[in-house]
Amino acid sequence: MNISVTASAADITAFRRRLVKTDPVLAGVIRAAGRYALEPAASHTPFHALARAIAHQQLNGIAAESIFGRFVGLYSATETAVAGAIEATLEAELVLDTPDDKLRAVGLSFAKITSIKDLARKTLDGVVPPYEILHTLADDEIVERLTQVRGIGRWTVEMLLMFRLGRPDVLPIDDFGVRNGFRLAYGLRGMPTPRALAEFGARWAPFRSVAAWYLWRAVDLHKAGKLPAPSQPTRIKIVKKKKKVAKKVAGKSARKTAASRSAPRKTSAAKRGKPARKK
């Protein structure tokens, strides 16, 4: 059974109508942002997509793509047109047989090599199945299976669910862009906590992927000066800023210590070589 259901135009229209009553703030963001344009694209295997995600960790996009391009260039696998370029499709068995020093030479760190090879092993073992099987699994089942891979966390799987499998009800509560978009759209003084965002976002089911996409757009609208002001105040738990009291106390203590060291010390008359006064 294929349970992947991408939100249709009719779904978005019905979702917007419901939001007018349940969440007018997000309804305003949707009006300002326009048409929903998240198009899932499973152009490569899950192994290839997840290997790319690992390669991109803690790097900016240009540097990561450069390294990943050299990595893919090591293999003469099936060629596929991607965004106007020709890119080989990674194969788990070939990658697993590649010496580490060869992978290191293209720019992959030892930690990423270990993660990618663990991904290759689990792909060959069936823990990471092909898309044909992934499409039959529920979201939570996919998260449970793929996060067994070293270096693959929940956020990475959620991106796969949204952008590769087209799952309509995924809310990546740990995503900085989603949380920042919520902060801006709802006029908060700080970031919502992941738990609070999950609880608030329950009202967006079964189209939480749609809500997340529009929260990303809220950041773009804010930068362009086009984000509508929230129509009503929103009460939600936010991340508290760390107090700087301890640092201030430590700073004062350090200044006092420095001052005491630099101040001239009082000495007794005897030590100064003068006769002591008689009492």
Report on this structure.
There is one protein chain. With 279 residues, the chain is mainly α. It has two domains: 1-38 and 168-259, Endonuclease Iii, domain 2 (Orthogonal Bundle), CATH 1.10.1670; 46-163, Endonuclease III, domain 1, CATH 1.10.340. The protein is 53% helix and 3% strand. The protein is globular, with a radius of gyration of 28 Å. 28% of the residues are buried. The model is unreliable at 77-85, 267-272 and 274-279 (pLDDT under 50).
For the largest sheet, list the strands in their spatial order.
1-2
For the biggest sheet, the summary is: 2 strands, antiparallel
Shape: globular
The percentage of residues in β strands lies in under 5%
Radius of gyration of CA atoms, rounded to a whole number: 28 Å
**Helical fraction:** 40-55%
Report the total helices.
Answer: 14
Are there runs of 5+ residues with pLDDT below 50, and where? 77-85, 267-272, 274-279
Given helix and strand content, the structural type is mainly alpha
CATH class of the largest domain: Mainly Alpha
CATH architecture of the largest domain: Orthogonal Bundle
SSE order, one letter for each helix or strand: HHHHEEHHHHHHHHHH
Ends: how far apart?
105 Å
Which fold name corresponds to the CATH topology of the largest domain? Endonuclease Iii, domain 2
Count the domains: 2
Whole-number average pLDDT? Answer: 86
What is the number of beta strands? 2
